[in-house]
Amino acid sequence: MQLHTRTWGEGDRLALLIHGIMADHRTWRRVGPALAARGYRVIAVDLRGHGASGRGAYTAEILADDVVETLPAGADLAIGHSLGGLTLSLAVDRLRPRRAVFSDPAWHLATAEGFSPAVFAEFKGATRERIAAMNPRWEAADVDIELETLGAWDEASASGLAALSGVDLLPAGPVVPSLVQLADPSFLIDTAKAAVLAERGFEVRTVKGAGHTIHRDDFDAFMTSLEGWI
Asked: Nearest CA to 213 among 122, 125, 106?
């Protein structure tokens, strides 16, 4: 599937952005322009079932295939958040960016009820007040965008997560030089898993005090955490 994309900038370097579940390219509203200001041409996708991209069957492998079909190989940088981090890890051997950043990646979904597809699907009807209460550090514009992206999201895509519940999805090692950027605390990558990733050759950095969507929760700290990688 050819995915819908949004581009910022006309720089000589190329950066790719892959969002998490329930979001779309609009989640990168500050990151895209910031990277463009650093000399990148930035391409952000809407994953299958999200934003303006098409609908269809949903598995992590299919999402990765779509990204490979849509985005150019050999970019200077690729960043994937949450489900986008999982998607990037399943596509990185084909995309072959020079550097990869996995922002609080979905490499381990616990078997707790909070990760069931039904709970994700129920969140599609979340109110502005609920979103703001869950994300007290977000700017109002990000709450507005979350409402819009939830409206555009196909909640059936959450069913693709069911098979991943409780599965260890930590990569065996980095295919390209890779940074794992973690929330504080991360509900996806705990301290023990972070240590495993470091042993396997990933650089691991925690953004102190930041929630799961680091780039919306603390944009400045998100960008600082990328120093040396962008």
From this structure: 106
Average pLDDT, the chain: 95
DSSP 165: B
β-bridge pairing 40-45 and 100-103: unpaired
Which residues contact residue 56 at a Cβ distance below 8 angstroms, ignoring those fewer than 6 apart?
1, 48, 49, 62
Of the candidates 63, 164, 177, 158, the residue with the CA atom closest to the CA atom of residue 120: 158
Q: What letter represents residue 202's amino acid?
A: F
- Give the three-state DSSP class for 1: coil
Predicted confidence (pLDDT) per residue in 113-165, tens digit: 456 777 888 899 999 999 999 999 999 999 999 999 999 999 999 888 788 88
End-to-end CA distance of the chain: 29
State how far the Cα of 119 lies from the Cα of 3, in Å rounded to an integer: 26
Beta bridge partners of 102: 80, 180
pTM over 0.70: yes
